[in-house]
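quick one, two chains, predict together pls
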Amino acid sequence: MTGPEVTVGSEVTPLERTIELRDMVAYAGATWDWHRLHYDADYLAKRRLPAPVVDGQVFGALLAEQLQDWLGPRAVVRRLHFRFKNLVFAGETVRCTGRVIAVAGDTLRVEQRIVVVDGGEPRRVAVEPAGAEVVLRAEAVS
Amino acid sequence: MTEEIRALVGREVSYTAPEELGRAAIRYFARAVGDDNPLYTDDAYARGHGYDGVIAPPTLICETNQYADQPPDADGYAGHDWHIEIPGSRKVRGGNTYTFHEPVRPDDVITAAWRLDGVTERRTSAGQEMLVVSSVATYTNQHGRLLATNEETIIYVAVHVAPEEEP
């Protein structure tokens, strides 16, 4: 199997996702996290928040998925870090981008970020800085 | 910073899941985040790529509250919490650093051991006081294998200029 070109400066294929309230409810259930921030209109109104707030941990999952989709099943994410910059609300679309910043043997380091986009245009940063260390295993003999 | 909060540094608490992680939980998580990678749902595919069968998406172990088995609090939150109350502040998530040591499998029974590593006073760029609480969770399975660690930062910001609510 041939993978993507992986050298310093290589762009990680972007991942774009619209996060609807339905997806957030599914995520709350899947992670046993029923925090009212993610769905409760009365709770949000009292805190002057315009809409349900996307659970920040979702972005960790998207950053890992972006790398795994780009590099294929032989890639193993070893480390992943991310810092939250701005809230993301139900119905918004996020775009994960990234590029390779170091390659040493079978290990690469990637920097990533997530922005909220609207009509294809970036509106605000959701997650930055972020990045990962990924190991590319030799393909298993099946 | 009060002595009361400073005294929390070094506190530890450990939770063991009441059951295995389970294949359904893995498929549910992958589906909820929109990840259709067959490594998480197709045993034959996973075996073809060097695993013993399906694995969990890497961040699931750090994101699920399955192990905690806590009753939900007033906010509806049912995960690990240090229950730090700082009047006049808003709790905000800072960020996380995950380290994945071994693939997580459906039959893993997860223990999460949390340690409160540090409490630091800082100021936001706007000059507002904030308290940064750093914790680390270490996840192991029933065989004592280290699966992952999760370094987490929670920030308590004075309410007036809080730009973010806990996401």
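Chain B touches chain A through 47 residues (CB under 8 Å).
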